[in-house]
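Supplementary Methods. Inverse-folding protocol.

Structures were first reduced to a discrete structure-token string of length 235. This string, shown here, constituted the complete conditioning input.
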């Protein structure tokens, strides 16, 4: 099965144990662009390991992670870090925002650190992203002034502003609940179709899904069920 440049992210026979003790065994799958992919399962079932290996946050013992068909296994630490910064956006279980900075400064930071765009372009892109996540009225606010749901929206804006191939969202329903969670997940679906990244999120088995979502149930380190197996992977 040849590597495909059509998918932003692919895993080929990936196995390994992460530093948190979670593991996966010989997982092969691909994540298409413009789609919300949910890694659903218990915390100990392997979804976190799949998340971390897919995001180049840790190195698997076996197998290959490909970005647009390009292998990453033989990259050194510096090259992996640079590739991760250039190609991925992240929103972790905690927003990890800089409380001493304004909302717009938090979101714009990847543009200066990674893309090195000029200030005018950075402000344009950042303000457009904050409007998308519904925070155009909080551009100059300090992040510590925002309610928790709004802080997670800032994290998503920061993860998307550099136009990543994939956005990885950790523990989707771990903090947000009710209407806040429903609106947040719907925003991710809209972000996938509007901006085009593969959005990959870990979630509990209880997360509500829509027919447009791709759901992978992770159990005992393997994919127990894939709601829409990609044809080239399922052959």
């Amino acid at each position: 099965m040849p590597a495909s440049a059509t998918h932003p992210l692919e895993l080929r026979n990936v196995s390994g144990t992460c530093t948190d003790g979670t593991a996966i065994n010989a997982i092969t799958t691909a994540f298409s662009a413009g789609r919300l992919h949910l890694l659903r399962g218990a915390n100990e079932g392997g979804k976190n390991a799949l998340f971390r290996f897919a995001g180049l946050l840790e190195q698997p013992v076996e197998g290959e992670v490909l970005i647009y068909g390009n292998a990453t296994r033989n990259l050194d630490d510096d090259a992996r870090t640079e590739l991760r910064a250039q190609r991925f956006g992240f929103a972790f279980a905690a927003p990890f925002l800089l409380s001493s900075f304004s909302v717009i400064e938090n979101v714009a930071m990847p543009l200066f650190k990674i893309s090195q765009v000029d200030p005018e372009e950075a402000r344009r892109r950042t303000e457009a992203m904050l409007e998308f996540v519904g925070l155009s009225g909080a551009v100059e606010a300090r992040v510590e002034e925002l309610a928790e749901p709004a802080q997670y929206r800032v994290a998503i804006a920061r993860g998307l502003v550099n136009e990543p191939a994939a956005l990885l969202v950790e523990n989707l329903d771990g903090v947000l609940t009710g209407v806040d969670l429903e609106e947040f997940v719907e925003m991710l679906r809209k972000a996938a179709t509007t901006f085009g990244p593969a959005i990959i999120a870990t979630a509990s088995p209880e997360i509500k899904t829509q027919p447009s979502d791709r759901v992978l149930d992770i159990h005992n380190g393997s994919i127990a069920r894939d709601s829409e197996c990609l044809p080239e992977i399922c052959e």
